[in-house]
Amino acid sequence: MAAFPTVLTAFVLVLAHLCDAQQSIITMNPPTGWLTLPTNGTGRPVEVTCAPPSGANVFVSVMSIRRVLHRNQAHQDLAGAARSSSDPNGSVEDKSRDNVDKSEVAGSIQENFIKFTIPQADCRDAAMYTCEVIYAEGTEGFTATNSQNLTVTVEPGQLSMTPEPRLNEYQYNASVLLRCIGPVGTVDDDTQVEWIWDYQESGGFFWTPVTTADTLEDSQPIPPGNCAVNQVNTLQLYVLPVDSGRTYRCHVRVIRGGSSVPYENLAAEYRIVSVLQGASKADVGAIVGGVIGALVVIVIVVILVYFLVIRKRRNARTEEVDPSKPADEREPYPYPSNNADVTYTKSNRFRDVSTLDFLPLLHMEPFIQMPPSFSMLFVMISFASYSDLTHSDGICSKIKPATWAIAMAGKNPMELEREEAE
């Protein structure tokens, strides 16, 4: 007799597959089949109830609840009940011990329902749940099934922003990297996350979108069993004075099921206090230092040239005086006492134009009366000509004609004397 229920059950199964049946009744809590978890991923309860078709006077032999996971399409048995000689009421049995950490079952075939409960459901429990009922009505057997989808999502969380570098005052056109990080919720084929950057002027009320492209730097899932991810999004700025007092912020918009939901209340913000005008203090200091250094070098060069000219002039004066002659026979330098009635003696200092020594001319009154700029040019060219007396192949030999032309332009009396002699 014990084998009779088993034979009857097998017979009902065969008939069920051969005959049309009504749908079983499956109910789920949450009713919409959409489970939304908080940002921290803490699970919430999910209940799945399975019952025979309504209004039918049937003899139910088997009831079961199973699911197909979204993430890997795995088939899992969760709960089941079957009548037998030892259990004519068909008590429910939990079959999910290998698939669900904690679960609860209730009901029986005698009570016309079975229920499977997940106290702390998370993203791993997103699946298509199916209720199956095998029953007989009169002499015919049927299998009734019905399914409901459970979607699990996680909402975005509070974001945070880190500026690199963080300063109270930025230099003109300084590079500032704004890095925004935080949980952005679920990201899958049905859910996308869009990052938004905008700014608000100091004392303003409206936010202006930032046209500069932002960069998604990183995206990491939040373990364990959580379908949410942490993301890092960056915005590169080169701040200008118009950025002084501006507040930059980042936030996300979740696009799911054709709808877009902004989460501005979870935005992160950073205010740029001040940006310097124009060049930085460091740049101004470098410019001023360079100018002062250049002036110091010029002054040193002028002083060196001046002392070299004086020394050369003194050496030339010593060479012109022959100490072996009596003082009254020495040929005097043509130093005029005044500008009137000046007489000059003819000297043998004039050789050819290419070897003319102009150093004695430096002591003459007409040279002193030259303009300062012309006098300095005369000093430098004369010194170059004198130095070239012992270096006839030097570069100074190339400017002797120019020196002679300058001397002529200066109306030097010694030149006039030589012209008269010729």
Automatic annotation (TrEMBL):
Annotated segments matching region Disordered: 76-104, 318-338
Signal sequence coordinates? 1-21
Question: Which spans are transmembrane here?
Answer: 284-309
Q: Which domain of life is it from?
A: Eukaryota
Native species of this protein?
Batillaria attramentaria
Q: Where is the composition biased (Basic and acidic residues)?
A: 92-104, 318-332
Q: What is this protein called?
A: Ig-like domain-containing protein
The protein's UniProt keywords, in alphabetical order, are: Membrane, Signal, Transmembrane, Transmembrane helix
